[in-house]
Amino acid sequence: MRADIMEKIVSLSDGERIPELQQYLSSLTDDQVTSSPPSAPEGASRRLLLYQHCIPLCESGDLQTEVASDIIGLLMLETHNLPGPSLAQLASLFVDAIKLGKMGSGKSLELFPTVLTALAATEALSYGKGELSGEEYKKQLINSLCSSRWDPQCVIHLTTMFRDVPLAPEELQFLVEKVLRMFLKLDLQEIPPLVYQLLLLAAKGCKKQVLEGIISYFKEQDLLSIMTPIIHNLRHVEGTAILHIVFAVRLDQELGREFLKSVKGCQGELCPFSIALLLSVARIQRYEEQLFDFLKGTITKGFKDEHLQQGSKFLQDLLPQRCSLAQMILDTVKNSVFGWDHVTQGLVQLGFILMDAFGPKAGPFGKTATEGANATAKTPTQQACRLGGHILLEGFKMHEPIRGEILEQVLNRLVTKTASPVTHFIDLLSDIVVSAPMILLESSSKVTETFDHLSYLPLATVQGLLKAVQPLLKVSMSMKDALILVLRKAMFSSQLDGRKSAVTGFLLLLKNFRVLGSMASSQCTPALSFMYSSHYEGISIGPFICDVSCAQVQVDVHSRYNSAANEAFCLEILSSLRRCLGQQADVRLMLYEGFHDVLRRNSQLASSIMQTLLSQVRRYYEPEQDLLPPVKLELCIGAQGDQVFLQEPLAHLLSCTVHCLLWYQGMRRSARPNAGGSDNDDDDEEEGGFQDELQSILESITRRMIKCELEDFELDKSAEFSLSSVGVKNSIYAVLVMGVYEVLIEYNFTKANYSKSLFEELLELFSRYNKLSEILKEKSGKGKSSKSPRSLLSMGFVSTLLTALFRDSAQSREEALLVLRSSGDFLRYAVNVALQKITQLEETGHTDGPDGQNTDKTFHHLCDITSVLMWRYTNIPCAVEDAGKKEKRCSVSLLCLEGLLRIFSTGQQRYPARVAQLLSAIGGTHTNWNASVTEKIAFYIRQFQRALFTQLSGGEEDFSSKEAQILVNILSVLSRQLEPSSQQFVQMITWTVKICKETSFEDIAFSKGLLSLLFSLHVLYKSPVSLLWELCQDIHSQLGDIDQVPTATDRTVSPGNLTDNSLQTVTLLVLSQVGKVLDEVDWLITKKKGQLVPDRLSDATQAAGQQDPVEKALTLQLGTLLTALNELVQTALPSGVCTNTLLGELSRTYTILTTLVKYVCVCPLKSLIPLYFQVKLSGSHLTPQCYSFITYVQAKLLRETKAIPNLIYSIEQYEKYLITLSKKSKVCKGVVWDGRLSHIELMSTIASQEPEQSQEPKKKRKKQ
């Protein structure tokens, strides 16, 4: 093409003259536009010029997309014809444009891969003063490009472009690092497409790096975006990114495998985003099992690690407390509300996996430890189960699509898991009912289907299920009708549990369908609407209102359920329940235990209930006043063949009658001042009949039971109480009579109004009770449990009785109360019953009798009892009470102290949030309510410290081992409530150390308790290894060396005054603590090994400077422990459990040393000097003594024990890996491996190494 034509074309290419350019070009002939060949310099330069003009033109955006694509397509076809220099210039043009940010649209970047591919095929290109091959030139260009600054607008285009560029592994890694760094410079909305392109690029390699980079970015964004307006945008972006990754993993199995490796290698670096990603990927079937197993294991490991750290100040100071994995999972649940539908299914699955795997397990004979509603999750497995419940509950609240599935799975488990406890699923169902009751009504058919299985479910499951769904019965007529139908069928079930389930259901309905005119529940007990259970806080039914979703539950109950209908409904149920009075004792017992609560919550049913009880009492009451006994015991038992069994729980019948009568009379008295007119008089005439008759019956029974002798019940000292039919009958009689006496004691105390004569009668009742109780204890037989039957006194009465006996100082009552106070047996009985009630509360979360299920009332009674017991113990110490007494019975003060121990333990377990209230109640009006919990605890700790100090300061004859043990246990329980960083905690541990040093450990049980307290405090204050060393020295000094017999002059007592009696106990405690320290060391090494990343090992080996603090602390801990064990292996320990335990701990020690050496072989420490001292301690000191100790044990035992070969094997394994390490490092070389070499040879070998180690430690580190 001639120059003039070219100039013409260029001049017409101005934007305003385009039509002229088109006309001119169409006028040219083929000869005029024929180009020079690309091999010619002119042709090459012209083509290059064309490329240089077309590329900016395509990027300008002035062309239509189709036109620009056609131009780029034509240029691609000609690229391979360009010579090398032109390609190099063209590539430089692209690189410069990218650096200057001129690649806005990125359209021309489609051409760049073709240019680079053609360039790589070039044999040689000039570069600077020399030449490079095309491949090397391409590498230089890519390096220059990735090292330069990229315009954020072109990052996505560049990532897309590089997918078509052949890249070496190192080039790809360099590129991926560059793109990941650019994440922080992009807007959030640009992240998902970039993630998508990056995942496509990962098909070339660097899959793990890509995944970790994406996760790391979102983890950082989570931390930066908390409480900022962009958090919603971030969540949506995260959801889209997760979808892209899951899609990529579905298509690329290799990417999935890399993802699994990545998450398993960084367990401590999980975040809400990575957890959501895990749950989404888990929906892919081939990864499901692996990922859920990983999550389950990681969760339990996280809880175990937290548990271990919380119990060790050493670990708390060493490792920072990371964000809880459980909290991150719950954050994932919250984040999933932003359209993360792909995550919710995984959350549901994870929640049920955790609840199934870590729920309560059935114990021996199908029993399980009962957890009350207020019990806190303590163990890692309990915490994991609780986390599963929280996941499902929060998911249920937030996501409508999964609600049906969650409810169905919960109900299915209640029906199918009959052999294992399901309390955790019942708790979850209860929480679901509270959070979304109207949602559940939409799925009422699933609930009613579950009702069909009630007859076949365990009683505990039925009770929990019915309590959980009870709020729904108030607003769903169909559900209520379905339940009634099922309960009526169950009433005639052939299975005992089925009939008991029917009674449970009917009693529940009676409690919650109130009849018009019934007292408001608040009049019976404060803050109580329809349930005492803490599961229903914040809900009030009648209309049914829920604080979680008030708008959902505005239901006009009265349009369906009016009070008149309720009355007929309740009377019909009562009629059904009366049939139960002819069934087995277990069914009757449930009825008697439930009537009182029904009466309190539905007072209009009082007449029917009282008449029912009266007619039942008449059956067993002897109306002839001159006949003894006043009850027909023979009707209370049944027989079938040789078997004798209880037919009527008479004592419980009387207890129910008494409590209902007393409550009814109190209710009538409180209502009478507010009522007037003849209606009230008519009611009194109508209902006074059963009151008068019941009162006269109870008075008659009281009067005649006082006159009764044991012979009247066919019971006396000669009566048989064996397992024969006669013995069983006598045992049943005895328990019934004792129960009747207890019921009468409570009734008559309440009615006595502090009358001296009536209290004397009450004491007569007790003397009869006590006489029978003593016979039962005596006849229980040697070697058998002498546990007395559970008392029928109510918790409220026990509280009232103790207050009257110990704290009532009113002059008008003093004479009457003196009658009761003068009986030591009665005082002991009252405190013993209180102990029994508190123990039951601690174990089950509730007590028998009225208000036993009411958490608030029970806690109130507990506070009153605590105050009384504390006053009694502090004002009348055991020493004062026991002075001059020859009887060996447990003193009242000692029983009070034991009660305080049980109360503090119960408060910690069942009422952790109300400990401050409990402590405030102890002091009554004198308590400083403004003091902190720590200050209140410290105040009472000082009181018990003084009591213990008084015990230890007295003479040997004044020392009470049991009292001292209880005091130590109380101090232990209270000290757990102190904050370890508080001044009060420091004072506590200082006092404990002082007591230990000044006390002579004569009493074994007391010694064990005191040292256990010392260790439990010490681990929360600092590492106990130095204390262990001191104790080991003391044990060594007491028992002497294994090769000599100790004499009195050889013994020098160090930290504590150990005696021969307690040495074995102390040694075992020390070894137990050694085991815990070894656990911590082993955990630390495992933690460090888990942090090793193969890609970073080279950096770790080259890193110089100060030693890692964890490694330093670990080696110091282990070194001190080796020194302590060195003392024990030289000690002449008594053969048996002490020597076997020590051999086991030595074996563990060498196993952990081996693990440490293996760790150092993989990732050398920044300084091997500390390890060298471990080797020196073990090789020169401990190992030789171990072999001597083995010889000593063999001589003492005269037989083989497995512990010895295990120890020898552990020592040999340790030495084997130590030799391997010595080949890698000169530091440990030359240390004697065989402990049996002479000490002189050993020290000379070490001496030859020491100068090299001690001169310039820093230089040694640099060489590494």
UniProtKB/TrEMBL annotation:
It comes from the Eukaryota. Residues 45-249, 343-507, 792-1014, 1028-1227 form the FANCI solenoid domain. InterPro entries: FANCI, FANCI_HD1, FANCI_HD2, FANCI_S1, FANCI_S1-cap, FANCI_S2, FANCI_S3, FANCI_S4. CDD domains: FANCI. Residues 254-335, 548-777 form the FANCI helical domain. One of its GO terms (molecular function) is DNA polymerase binding. Coiled coil: none annotated. Pfam families: FANCI_HD1, FANCI_HD2, FANCI_S1, FANCI_S1-cap, FANCI_S2, FANCI_S3, FANCI_S4. GO terms for biological process: DNA repair. Residues 6-34 form the FANCI solenoid 1 cap domain. PANTHER family: BC025462 PROTEIN, FANCONI ANEMIA GROUP I PROTEIN. This is FA complementation group I. It comes from Oncorhynchus mykiss (Rainbow trout).
